[in-house]
Specification:
heterotrimer, A mainly alpha, B mainly alpha, C alpha/beta, A: mainly alpha, MetI-like fold, C: alpha/beta, 6-stranded mixed sheet
């Protein structure tokens, strides 16, 4: 078991290395002097020279990479000249809304989608099943921002039940925080629910065709027991895998959803940073999202062992 | 290595049925109701894109300060080039610069379809080449797959945002930025097919009669990737249209001079409470197009790639 | 077999196939009886409907198949009329079933004990301790070592034979009156098969259980059955006591089937020829290593120091059970995989270490026919294109290659005008003939048949084997015959090699190996072969 985790940890090193190289090269691929790009449009030549010195831009490129990665490993992500703060501070400020949004969505979507998918598989071909499949195609097809604005129009503008936009920190007022999380989470959930419900249905259907399901029926077990005890646990691994891969969709969706609902999170920060060409911030956000994504999928990989005794190595 | 007994009557019966009734796959595909339904909607969209200038549109980039923020159905007076004025009903209203939303939405179809088609084609072209190399050239496989894993570790839309940020936004930049995150997905698909098929006895049979490698690849292996790639291609196109819309909506995609559904909506964001039509109409077109492609993709997958349709 | 009351009576059973199938009914008016303490074998080739009958009795038919007539009486109770709930009550208490694939029939994520326990929890009110004791008892009755450990193991930790024992334990834990066994040994090696057959016969004898045993293998029938029912295309051909059916079959079909079964007993294949050596291996070895940077190196030695030589015009048979490395050896010789050690001499040329480009001219000389007739030909190109591909690779003009292909189609007794058809338009046996034609088109010096007849029904198998013999005497072909079926090897080969865990444990002239085996493993293998002539 320990061996398994250790090997998985080692396996993510090359993946993160590729990500790091890409993020590092981003700045070099931009036309123009990297130091000038970082410093922004209003920088003085002294500032530019200072940056060039700090990042070792006069040295060969592999040394620059060494300096850059060394800084990052020490938690020094550079400085945002646009926001006039260190990037680390900036991220710390902006992380809460994104985290809240992602967690609410994840919990809501998984709790809803898995039972829906199982039920659809169990009643394959029924009206319910067809409705779930139709919803899932729709959920893939309607973009988050359209859903978001529809929800705002119905629940915030027409009905006036919920606030249109904005964010209140969870520590400040939980009630106002919660009412501002409902619509964004709902918006972000739609695509995620569509994805998970569909894969749950497919995995359960596939397992229901296995020989051991026939054995279970031959034992005289009822359909419910066959489904819950034999089918679902065997279907867990593909479902978990897709939830893990779906985190990428969640992150992408967060960028759009935060913009629609005016949440001051990392997604909004990314867009602001791109619009102002604030490269240290863009680089850090990309790196951060990727590391989180890789680590979540690592944890999911490890959790497979809980569901399937065959996965030990 | 024990004997296989093709048991079960059902199996042999269905095998017999399949072999007598076997039709070319594309014939089955174009008879699938999902393919027909999605295909018809898509054809309408293509027609709109091609004939946009003849469908009662005006110049979609024309700014008219006198006709700002008109609701759908309003009659506006506008000045012609020769100085005379004329009246016209704006079907979908106008935006905050007085541009005609109806014309912008219709012209926007061009951008979306162009992005969808070119992203799918580019991603498949690049992915097939890399996937074949990876699946067939053993020493290259390790390196290529590590790079692909790395690219897949960056959430797709963020990778696209990162790429857009490197260059100034434009149609080509946006297409390229959406293609890059898709390439590893195509590579994985092609590689897995190559790895499976090259173990098939008929490929080994071809090797043992001295078939040269390139014939092996193009005659015996590559045809197996066509059906899955057509299916994957439709889904890539749908996702690409959504991605372009998202980037443009965020203001970092197609610049507003070229009307695209995403940037029409971006334009409409500030005054959404009063004038929701700026978001509603392009939203409907966008959702309808993507839905049509996805439904068609489902139908294609069921007919062309039944093994995969069991999975997802 | 004291008291012979019927436990299962099948009367005029008809099961309909869905529309569009090759016939209307999967099973057509079949009647038979299984008495307590009796083993009844349903035997037939693929598509005979024998498994459908078994699943109908259990009420486990796929929805597409519908019983449309007759009745099935389990101790007098018609199960066709029983409710779904009543059927569930009967399963595992009165009637139980074991399946063909022990590898997939158990739930991989539940321990074996839990899975048997589920039967007891569903059908009884016993407390935990009693249930556990009962399970341990049945596990030891099916002769599983260390029942306590087995109780806690997961299926993937057990061998195929052990898993089938778990299935038997599960089926018999509540002492049902009827056990249905659907090809329970087909997926097992011959030695394991012998043990499982012995176990079923023993348990059935002591408990007085009635057994309905489905098989395609007359050897198995001879080993185990009291009564035999022969099925063809869903209809009962003939039924009677085993001895009568095997030695004095009335129906022509039964006679044909029985005569198709290859016998383990001697036929005169002549002595080994003193011809020129076509192919020779020297300390041939193949090591598979799961060589991945991030994984534990898993090394499997699939073949170790294998020395073979094949002379012109003879057939060398290689026998072995699954995992013995026999296919690895074949594929090393054909250079479909690269040997890790040793040498392969084709005539005087060493080809084991030859580079791919230098190897190409030699590829022609060794051809191979594979096991699976459905995957051996590219489904997208016509069989004609498949056959001429090789000769054209070696520079034969297209029309000459086509002429050769037409001639070869006649040689393998197929219609030469069928060259423009696709593989899916042929049956399994026909495809194997086409594969042989494709191999012969290369005019090879050695033809490897890698389990080439294993996937075929016995009657078809016999035809293909006969064709191979005729071709050999006509053209002086040299065969390397790889098979798990000892009878096939005995009928076809002049010399035999026995492989076990990658090691060639014994080799020599066929008669010497079969009549006077030296290695213990060979003796064990020969003992395990079910033999139709034991009854006949």
């Amino acid at each position: 078991m320990f061996d398994f985790i250790a090997r998985r940890l080692v396996a993510i090193v090359p993946v993160l290395a590729v990500v790091a190289v890409f993020v590092f090269l981003m700045l070099r691929l931009t036309p123009g002097d990297p130091a000038a790009v970082i410093a922004g449009d209003n920088a003085t030549s002294d500032q530019i020279a200072d940056i060039r010195e700090k990042l070792g831009l006069n040295q060969p490129i592999w040394q620059q990479f060494g300096i850059w990665i060394g800084n990052i490993l020490q938690g020094n992500f550079g400085e945002s000249f646009f926001f006039k703060k260190t990037v680390a501070e900036l991220i710390a400020q902006r992380v809460e809304p994104t985290l809240a949004l992602a967690l609410c969505t994840l919990v809501f979507a998984v709790c809803l989608a898995v039972p829906i998918g199982v039920l659809a598989a169990y009643r394959q071909g029924s009206v319910f099943d067809k409705a779930v499949m139709a919803f899932s195609v729709l959920g893939f097809s309607v973009p988050g921002f359209v859903i978001g604005y529809c929800l705002i129009y119905i629940f915030a503008i027409e009905l006036g039940w919920l606030p249109v936009q904005g964010y209140v920190r969870i520590g400040v007022d939980f009630g106002r925080f919660a009412e501002r999380m409902v619509l964004p989470s709902l918006t972000l959930s739609v695509g995620f629910i569509a994805l998970i419900a569909r894969i749950t249905r497919a995995s359960v259907l596939e397992v229901l065709n296995e020989d051991y399901i026939r054995t279970a029926r031959a034992k005289g077990l009822s359909n419910r027991v066959v489904l819950m005890r034999h089918a679902l646990r065997n279907a867990a691994v593909p479902i978990l895998t897709v939830i893990g891969l779906g985190i990428a969709i969640l992150m992408g969706g967060a960028v759009v959803t935060e913009s629609v609902f005016g949440l001051p999170g990392l997604g909004r920060l990314t867009v602001e940073a791109v619009l102002s060409r604030d490269f240290p911030t863009i680089q850090t956000v990309i790196l951060l999202f990727s590391v989180v994504y890789v680590v979540i999928n690592l944890l999911i990989d490890i959790s497979y062992t809980l569901f399937d005794p065959r996965i030990r190595y | 290595m024990s004997a296989i007994t093709p048991e079960d009557v059902v199996d042999s019966a269905s095998i017999a049925a399949a072999s007598t009734k076997r039709k070319p796959l594309w014939q089955l595909a174009i008879r699938n109701p999902n393919v027909i339904f999605g295909g018809v909607i898509l054809l309408v969209m293509v027609a709109i894109a091609i004939f946009a200038p003849f469908l009662g549109t005006v110049d979609p980039t024309r700014i008219d300060p006198a006709a700002r923020n008109k609701k759908p159905g309003t009659e506006i007076t506008f000045r012609l080039e020769d100085g005379t004025t004329a009246k016209r009903t704006v079907l979908m209203g106008t935006d905050s610069l007085g541009r005609d939303v109806y014309s912008r939405v219709l012209y926007g179809t061009r951008v979306s379809l162009a992005v969808g088609v070119s992203v799918a084609l580019c991603a498949i072209a690049i992915g097939v080449v890399i996937g074949l190399v990876s699946g067939y050239v053993r020493w290259a496989d390790g390196i290529i797959m590590r790079i692909m894993d790395g690219l897949m570790a960056i959430p797709g839309i963020l990778l696209a945002i990162a790429l857009v940020s490197i260059w100034r936004a434009g149609l080509i930049t946006v297409i390229f930025a959406i293609v890059v995150p898709d390439v590893p997905r195509v590579v994985r698909l092609v590689r897995s097919i190559v790895l499976t098929v090259r173990e098939e006895p008929y490929v080994e049979g071809a090797i043992s009669v001295g078939t040269p490698t390139w014939v092996l690849l193009f005659r015996h292996i590559l045809p197996n990737t066509v059906a899955p790639l057509i299916v994957q291609g439709t889904f890539l196109a749908a996702a690409a249209i959504l991605a372009e819309a998202a980037l443009s909506f965020l203001g970092i995609g197609i610049p507003p001079e070229i009307p695209s559904w995403g940037n029409i909506m971006a334009e409409g964001r500030t005054l959404f409470r009063v004038f929701p039509h700026n978001i509603l109409y392009p939203g409907i077109f966008l959702a309808l197009t993507v839905l049509a492609i996805n439904i068609m993709g489902d139908g294609l997958r069921d007919t062309l790639d039944p093994k995969m349709s069991k999975k997802v | 077999m004291a008291d012979k009351k019927p436990v299962l009576e099948v009367r005029n059973l008809t099961v309909a196939l869905p529309g569009g199938a090759d016939r209307a009914n999967a099973v057509q008016k079949v009647s038979f009886t299984v008495n307590s303490g009796e083993i009844v074998c349903l035997v037939g080739e693929s598509g005979s409907g024998k498994s459908v009958i078994a699943f109908t009795v259990m009420g486990l038919l796929a929805k597409a198949l519908k019983p449309t007539g007759g009745e099935i009486l389990l101790e007098g109770e018609n199960v066709l009329a029983a409710s779904e709930e009543r059927l569930r009550e009967l399963r595992c208490t009165r009637m139980s079933m074991i399946f063909q694939e022990p590898m997939t029939a158990l739930n991989p994520v539940m321990s074996c004990g839990e899975q048997i326990d589920e039967v007891l929890r569903t059908h009884t009110n016993l407390d935990n301790a009693t249930r556990k004791a009962k399970i341990i008892k049945i596990l030891s009755r099916v002769k599983l070592p260390e029942p306590e450990r087995i109780y806690a193991s997961y299926p993937h930790q057990l061998s195929g034979g052990q898993r089938q024992r778990i299935m038997i334990a599960m089926a018999l834990v509540l002492d049902p009156v009827l056990l249905i066994a659907d090809e329970p040994t087909t997926a097992l090696d011959v030695t394991t098969q012998a043990e499982i057959l012995k176990l079923i016969a023993e348990l059935q004898e002591t408990e007085g259980t009635g057994v309905l045993f489905i098989t395609h293998d007359f050897g198995v029938v001879a080993e185990i059955a009291h009564k035999v029912a022969v099925l063809r295309w869903g209809e009962l051909v003939e039924m009677g006591p085993t001895e009568q059916i095997l030695s004095r079959p009335v129906a022509g079909y039964t006679r044909m089937l029985i005569s198709s079964v290859p016998s383990i007993h001697p036929v005169h294949r002549g002595v080994r020829l003193e011809g020129k050596t076509v192919l020779r291996t020297e300390k041939l070895g193949k090591t598979y290593s799961g060589k991945s940077f991030f994984q534990k190196a898993r090394v499997v030695k699939a073949a170790i120091d294998v020395d073979l030589d094949i002379r012109r015009g003879e057939t060398l048979g290689i026998v072995g059970e699954s995992g013995s490395g026999k296919s690895t050896v074949a594929r090393c010789i054909a250079r479909l995989i690269d040997p890790s050690e040793g040498k392969v001499y084709l005539g005087d040329t060493e080809i084991a270490t030859m580079s791919a480009s230098r190897l190409r001219p030699h590829r022609r000389k060794v051809q191979i026919v594979f096991q699976d007739p459905y995957r051996s030909m590219n489904p997208r190109i016509t069989i004609g294109e498949s056959i001429i591909e090789g000769p054209m690779n070696f520079g034969l003009p297209r029309d000459e290659a086509l002429a050769r292909a037409r001639k070869l189609m006649e040689t393998v007794r197929l219609d030469p005008n069928a060259l423009d058809r696709y593989p899916h338009q042929f049956s399994g046996g026909q495809r194997q003939r086409i594969c042989i034609a494709r191999a012969l088109a290369m005019e090879p010096e050695l033809l490897i048949a890698d389990e080439a007849v294993s996937a075929l029904d016995v009657s078809v198998q016999k035809q293909v084997l006969e064709l191979m013999s005729e071709l050999q005497s006509e053209f002086g072909l040299t065969y390397l015959l790889i098979s798990h079926n000892l009878a096939v090897v005995r009928q076809m080969s002049t010399a035999v090699g026995v492989l076990h865990n990658g090691v060639l444990v014994e080799k020599g002239p066929t008669d010497a190996i079969f009549d006077n085996p030296q290695a213990d493993y060979t003796r064990m293998l020969l003992d395990a072969v079910p033999d139709i002539s034991r009854v006949a």
